[in-house]
Design brief:
Length: about 200
């Protein structure tokens, strides 16, 4: 099983590979662009989301409302001078680092970002996340390199699949320990085992 530090690193890689750059600090849902995030703020209809959308305003009253809503959302009394300019305060790394004032661990916060972004499966080779297994297998087929091709062959060529799976996951997991069907690609299983081989090699 991968170390806690490695799991956090893998969760961050899954989020990055899935083109999630921004996150709503209220619901911890991820977005690829800031305009999509601000659209989310505006359509929710509650005062806190609306207050976060005022980050772009230059009016003092709006900035004060934003600051109140931001602190409430991240559940921390962060100083105004510590908040990055513009939409950078909604970047995944910054929100995760400051979320919950150390009550919430980065590991748990990252898990919530992934869950709320509807990621259920992850490619062990490139760590990109997917909502369904059929979309993941389509990714395997479209990518076209030997490892991705092998990952799609669990039913047709298990030996090749296992070799490619272990190479991609960087872990020598015995076939008997693999979950059935597409469950071996569930992101939680990937996070638990990704890079085990690297860590075992370093400990020798």
């Amino acid at each position: 099983m991968a170390s806690p530090q490695r799991r956090v690193e893998t969760l961050k890689k899954i989020i990055q590979a899935s083109s999630i750059d921004f996150v709503c600090p209220i619901c911890l849902k991820g977005f690829p662009r800031s305009d999509a995030l601000y659209h989310h703020f505006r359509k929710q209809g509650d005062n806190t989301h609306a207050g976060l959308a005022k980050r772009t305003s230059k009016k003092q009253s709006n900035m004060e409302e934003f600051l109140t809503c931001y602190r409430q959302s991240v559940n921390t009394s962060i100083a105004v001078e510590s908040i990055p300019l513009h939409s950078h305060c909604f970047k995944v790394d910054f929100v995760v680092e400051n979320y919950g004032e150390n009550i919430e661990t980065p590991h748990r916060t990252l898990l919530r970002v992934i869950e709320n972004s509807k990621i259920r499966f992850s490619c062990p080779q490139c760590l990109k996340g997917f909502p369904r297994s059929d979309v993941l297998y389509e990714h395997f087929r479209r990518t076209g390199d030997n490892v991705h091709d092998g990952l799609a062959m669990r039913r047709t060529d298990f030996d090749r699949f296992l070799s490619c799976y272990q190479e991609a996951l960087r872990a020598s997991i015995p076939s008997a320990q693999l979950p059935s069907s597409a469950k071996c690609f569930e992101y939680r299983f990937i996070v638990e085992h990704y890079g085990e081989g690297d860590e075992n090699h370093q400990s020798i």
